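Worked example 3. Consider a protein that binds iron/sulfur cluster.
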Amino acid sequence: MSEPLLMKGNEALAEAVIRAGCRAYFGYPITPQSEILEYLTAEARERGMVVLQVESELAAINMVYGAAGAGVRAMTSSSSPGISLMQEGLSYIASAELPCLVVNVNRGGPGLGTIQPSQGDYFQATKGGGHGDYRLLVLAPDSVQEMADFVFDGFDLADKYRNPVMILADGALGQMMEKVVFREYDPKDHETAKPWATTGKSGGRERNIITSLHIQPEKMEDINKHLQEKYRKMQTEVRYELIHTDDADIVLVAYGLAARICHSAVEMGRNKGLKLGLLRPKTLYPYPYDMVRELSAKVKGMHVVELNSGQMVEDVRLGVNGKVPVTFFGRMGGMIPSPEEVLASVEARIAQLHDEPREEQIYA
Amino acid sequence: MSEPLLMKGNEALAEAVIRAGCRAYFGYPITPQSEILEYLTAEARERGMVVLQVESELAAINMVYGAAGAGVRAMTSSSSPGISLMQEGLSYIASAELPCLVVNVNRGGPGLGTIQPSQGDYFQATKGGGHGDYRLLVLAPDSVQEMADFVFDGFDLADKYRNPVMILADGALGQMMEKVVFREYDPKDHETAKPWATTGKSGGRERNIITSLHIQPEKMEDINKHLQEKYRKMQTEVRYELIHTDDADIVLVAYGLAARICHSAVEMGRNKGLKLGLLRPKTLYPYPYDMVRELSAKVKGMHVVELNSGQMVEDVRLGVNGKVPVTFFGRMGGMIPSPEEVLASVEARIAQLHDEPREEQIYA
Amino acid sequence: MTHEILFAGFGGQGVLSMGMTLAYAGLVEGKEVSWMPSYGPEMRGGTANCVVIISTKPISSPLVTRFDAVLALNQPSVLKFEHAVKPNGILMYDSDACIIPPSRTDITVVPVPAEDEARKLNNMKVKNMVMLGSFLSACEVVSIASVVKALAQVLPERYHHLLEINHQALLRGEQLVVDAATPIV
Amino acid sequence: MTHEILFAGFGGQGVLSMGMTLAYAGLVEGKEVSWMPSYGPEMRGGTANCVVIISTKPISSPLVTRFDAVLALNQPSVLKFEHAVKPNGILMYDSDACIIPPSRTDITVVPVPAEDEARKLNNMKVKNMVMLGSFLSACEVVSIASVVKALAQVLPERYHHLLEINHQALLRGEQLVVDAATPIV
Amino acid sequence: MPEVAELQPALEAVWTKPETLTETRMHYCPGCGHGVVHKLLMEVVDELGIRQDTIGVAPVGCSVFAYQYLDVDMQEAAHGRAAAVATGIKRVLPDKYVFSYQGDGDLAAIGTAETIHAANRGENILVLFINNGIYGMTGGQMAPTTLIGMKTSTTPEGRETATMGYPLKITELLAMLPGVYSVSRHAVYSPNTVRALKKAITKAFQYQKEKKGYCLIEVVSNCPSGWKMTPVESNKWLEKNMLPLYPLGDIKVEGTLVQPVQKKEGQHS
Amino acid sequence: MPEVAELQPALEAVWTKPETLTETRMHYCPGCGHGVVHKLLMEVVDELGIRQDTIGVAPVGCSVFAYQYLDVDMQEAAHGRAAAVATGIKRVLPDKYVFSYQGDGDLAAIGTAETIHAANRGENILVLFINNGIYGMTGGQMAPTTLIGMKTSTTPEGRETATMGYPLKITELLAMLPGVYSVSRHAVYSPNTVRALKKAITKAFQYQKEKKGYCLIEVVSNCPSGWKMTPVESNKWLEKNMLPLYPLGDIKVEGTLVQPVQKKEGQHS
Amino acid sequence: MAIIRGTVAIDVETCKGCELCIEACPQESLKLSKGINKQGYHYAVLVQDNCTGCVNCALVCPDAVITVYRARKGGKRERIAEIRNVQRDIRISIDELQEGKVTS
Amino acid sequence: MAIIRGTVAIDVETCKGCELCIEACPQESLKLSKGINKQGYHYAVLVQDNCTGCVNCALVCPDAVITVYRARKGGKRERIAEIRNVQRDIRISIDELQEGKVTS
Ligand SMILES: Cc1ncc(C[n+]2csc(CCOP(=O)(O)OP(=O)(O)O)c2C)c(N)n1
Ligand SMILES: Cc1ncc(C[n+]2csc(CCOP(=O)(O)OP(=O)(O)O)c2C)c(N)n1
Ligand code: SF4
Ligand code: SF4
Ligand code: SF4
Ligand code: SF4
Ligand code: SF4
Ligand code: SF4
Ligand SMILES: [Mg+2]
Ligand SMILES: [Mg+2]
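Given these inputs, the predicted complex is written out as structure tokens:
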């Protein structure tokens, strides 16, 4: 355990990247995450890492493919429009089962949008913005501390499952400074054998091939079955945080920055005598459906808060499966609600908890 | 009404494109949809359309942005990996509210995959594969006839809502020949005024600007509210087909090619005395949640069949909202089930209809 | 009644248009039809095949993997598709192009000396119509008359002078099977 | 207790590092802290600002739009942020850099002759520390001692010879407010 | 002090802000070359009287807001895709004047493919390429055109060729393409360079009218903020350091190369 | 007929299939140049004894299955991104031999940006560029390199420059970049051209060992299927029609341009 | 006190004080103000009456802030303004300025 | 009947009958078979005993089908095979062929 430091989320993440033994970073500048590239460039030479600013996000994700396929820990980072450009590459990486880390410091969309914090890329991250049936393992930090922590976890999970891992943060988490303590982590203790990597066909082994092409549909279906089986195994990695859910009447569900705001709102509500709780998913894929289901058996309603028009709320509804009403409150396009606003949205909904869920989406 | 012709799905679609008054096509070859480009190139000169084979899908979607912004009916087409490359562009187009048509002749993924038919891109098409909160209007043909019909509808809807429309077909619908009859359609009767188009600032009007940038989050939130409001209006465009649902115990839900196969399976089941029905969504966004809800009030279960690992099934579950069990049968990676196989999957499920939905996903 | 038929051979042998002609003939007779080619890089090297379905009911999937009949115009197609014929189905092949004959006994195997016959007609291109004629003789999916009408649709105007020779080829093919009470081996 | 403070000025005036120093001082005192800069193209032309939150409770969002205190180092910042101060909050500004003074009466307005004071110290760069000293004098969010400790962390080793002058600036800033029983207008 | 109005009988305005420049205050940093180019572009549009027939494409880069200042119809393209967007517009409106306005990151990094292929197809458009050797918008990262040894936020020790490659002279590459009709390199650091650029823009619009094909004008420009210099320093630095690698002048005139496309600096040593 | 075995005392094998070519039958059409290049590449790998140190990148194009035939470690890249994938590999395994193998659609259309920037960074890799003037894999559409007047499925009347632009001589463009060390154009339509190509590949691997930077070998090749010709016809057509525009020989040798990068054909007329 | 040949009008609220005009003026007629405008910038002012109306300053000004006037050809050249000692103490505070274009 | 200088072994099952080797052979030693292999291709066969082992055919063969042998230097040159009239009627049917490499 090191001393607590005050660091920007992007920089804490970058520092963790180096400490996690990442060997190669390829990226292209985009606000609000360019500090990751900048921090790594500054450190690269001395700390023995390949850090390359390249011509585009497209190039970056495909270089990650190459480097990850060559057996090293590799990563890229970007923000929303840049991540959209990586969708083909991500689908390839997931299909070829290459472990790597991709960071999306989400900003307000759609289009060029704003550079302010947003959670508008939830669907893209969790359902697969690229083509075909694949999944990223998606981690959602809510603090500078987790910006660092999830890098270590991310690389470990990527190697464990040979699957791309995405850290889905937002502009505020990237830009803000907060206390961070780097965990003890020696990459050597976390090395995974990668006998499949293209490092040169030596030692009498068969040649290694990294590919996602299986022109025979029978074969491609086998690949898909294998992937689906892997995704089922990944369900055990589900992570979340519960706050005051034991006796809660209404449980708020939120992740990342929105969860911090909800946490304050829950405290404020409790002070007012409202029995509020909070479920904060830390993994967005796999999603804590089981916990949602469990909670929905004992609460009067769930209230989802997101920095978008209502995306994760679908996963909450899938988990709740009609047992209690699910309501939604969101801000969009880079706007951030205050805890007061969130609390007001909860209070406004408490009266109507028996409405039909689908009509209840509200937009502040 | 013209004579019935025997045409490939891709070619019928291309012919409809010309008849619908589309003025510009930009595309890049990819199997199984290159015939669209080829057909249009052959016809372009004589029939007064701009048809350009360009350097990439990225270029193509951004040319569509330019041409649609200039006020003409414009389109592109591709297949899965190519559509992934268009995600940034689609998010821009949706945000700038440009009407256009995008055709995805879906093949088996993820990655390079196969070139055989698939429905693996449902999430990408309906939830938004690009960044931010936006929606495409998604039409799902199930025959060569609809490959043509939905082009006319698609352009009309695009103009009506100033929104990109996607036709989500699959490789089989693109490659197969079937009977098609072109509807009477005079583009002149369907012209919409486009006072927002960049055609040159003349006639004393204010300059027109096509953009998706609104750096002030307040403004970007307003844009988002406007979009969400529009998407709510678009819900009225929901389209679907019902077969034998009146007295059905079990309703199959499927779209496109899978729906054809389910149709046969339903007939086979009826012959065996099983009360099966079929709900075939023709619009995947907006989704016929209301009809799903209505059906779930009177059937014993819903059984979803897709050519993927289970994507639309989530929308069915959202509509059903726990009222009856929802089961799933899918083939992946370009494999197509036979009607017998589908029927077997229904029969296998009938006994277990009371299991917990989430555990019931099965993969043949 | 549904017929699921595969046509296979080298590209350039008119395999796809043979299937298309049959499908069109089905349309002429008011039936439901579909035609589906194999596509993709396994087609490199010039093999080509397509599946035609002709039915009195709506067709579910145009893609099937077991066939009522297979028409093979070259050796690799015989080797590849012999086992895709449904029991009691038909495997018809150009006996002039194949050295290794099919070996299944649970199906009707019909060798057709199509190449020879085409040569006799002084037009190697009509080999496919000889085969089609033979097939329709063995299995009356549509009438030869409908095929002739279909040909006029499938062939671009500039090739309409070839309608006659194609018609002849169809008839010759038909005759070949009629002549051979039992399959010619 | 939570303090939400905005620092604003031109880039190059040390606005961001002023905020960072305060945040670090909060950390030194074991408080919860966050620091959040404005970023983006509206920052073109060299304006810079950041929000520091120092609290005894976990901080929810680092982005707030109303502040307990605003420290403005130039004229545009006064104009832009005067109305973002919470009622009864503090608006402190460099009176040497501003022609148009703030006009609100429901807040405490504190003009600080920071530029002059820095000039007296022969180092224009420490203007920000003069301001910070004044601020901490008016509103004891953290102790000056903690700020001095923080500075040693924030400043890279190669600038540690400047610690002393910064310390002085802080003290001078503190003194300015002490001297003026009522705000200097 | 006398009001200008009073002077009118004796004085005539010889330079006034072009009409097609909006009243909106530009967001650019003090001294940034983008403003000068905007101004010239609109001067030419005014002088040719083609405002109603001109459609511009803005990039993503500092000039992303160009459409707030240029009072003509405009589209804002995704980062790097301005040439594609301009192609889309021009192909359906062949009689309009279409230009794209792009930075060096936009045109020569992420947009390389669209840039090269629009040029190679000989799209009948004008591309204004503002080369300031840096990513201004995102805070001063290395651009493809960044000079060797130049410090940026992603080359803290200066760009070195071994890992980051050479400054990309994309203008010279584009000039080689047969579909390209006119290529020149300009600057705006002095009154004379400004005058020359204005002439070049005027000519390019005339070529476009005559459907001559693709015209490219590179403007070697400054980025005082990214370079961490005052505007005056930045212009001096530009003249001294940028121009040797990016020499001003015509490169291709009416379809014929007039400058040797290779320079010593562009060569492997 | 005598078995070869019987002849052994008197005869020695002077050409045998390279060991690093797998036994898998290639899926290429009869007479396709891809096979020849595969074979040569593996001959060189055998001769240099670098099989265990060689990592290849396959494109999307007809040669997408290259990894089924080349018995070395390989990665299959997304369409157009082979240069980026090769960069990723080489940067983390700098002592391995890394090559990419790409078609003209892959390298010169969708992959233009990655191609140019890998070259400009001087990535120490070998790029084998198979220019057959067409998209073979997808059924014979126009490629950037398609000749003027050449018929393809998307230029049924022949490519015309007015709407489709000029054949893109990307090799000449790449040769101009300072990070590029060696560029040559070859063919495989005759025994001599095959011999020359083999030498070029050998040299390129040696350069790579010496960390000289980016090496590009273009192979002007045929596509009998796409061109709708017999293999023998296609080779004759290639010699007659492709070579005037794409002349064979060295273009850049050890960092120095040796052929004028502009040819009449490449010029606007 | 010379006969004026040209002059400039500077929109001081839009000026960003980049000094490019000052650098470009062959007559050294321009300087930065001591005072600042609402944006906080020192702005360009005309400090000598020797302006020739050569438009150099206007050409290089990125913000199109400067309007240039020149004596009409053949028109009577008359003295129209006197600028005295202004270099020593240029300080125009904002409230003295009107909205819009102001000559300095 | 010449003393043999070289010869070739052709893997006829892999041969695709592209005829590039035939075109490349300076001796006109190669021709296509009348018969076909399992893939349905006519394949290359050696039809004269004048092969010099120049390897041209092997160099241009895209499928690496041809192995080339040459008389050892200094080795005794002897007649080893007689190929007669083979051009007129080359027809080797598949069942006559063994698996693997076969000389024709
Ligand atoms: C897809 C995508 N990637 C990255 C960015 C972030 N970005 C915005 S502008 C820019 C570069 C600007 O540099 P340049 O084109 O040189 O223009 P300048 O600001 O220097 O005028 C970048 C990388 C983006 N908006 N979209
Ligand atoms: C993103 C994407 N776009 C398009 C395709 C379809 N595609 C596959 S190969 C190919 C072009 C092949 O041409 P070329 O690179 O010249 O190789 P060749 O087949 O001629 O050897 C195309 C367009 C694809 N697989 N992925
Ligand atoms: S950052 Fe650079 S390019 Fe951008 S406005 Fe400022 S000076 Fe101009
Ligand atoms: S299509 Fe062309 S490039 Fe592809 S294998 Fe066949 S001949 Fe070769
Ligand atoms: S017009 Fe010429 S002389 Fe007058 S101020 Fe401007 S630059 Fe100086
Ligand atoms: S050039 Fe323009 S903006 Fe710069 S100081 Fe002069 S008037 Fe002001
Ligand atoms: S070159 Fe090879 S494949 Fe072609 S005919 Fe000769 S042996 Fe057969
Ligand atoms: S080795 Fe030479 S002579 Fe012998 S068959 Fe081959 S090409 Fe002909
Ligand atoms: Mg730039
Ligand atoms: Mg090609």
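Take a moment to read the result before moving on. Chain E touches chain G at residues 1-4, 6-7, 9-18, 21, 25-26, 28-36, 39, 188-191, 194-195, 224, 230-232, 235 (CB under 8 Å). Residues 1-5, 263-269 of chain E have pLDDT under 50 and may be disordered.
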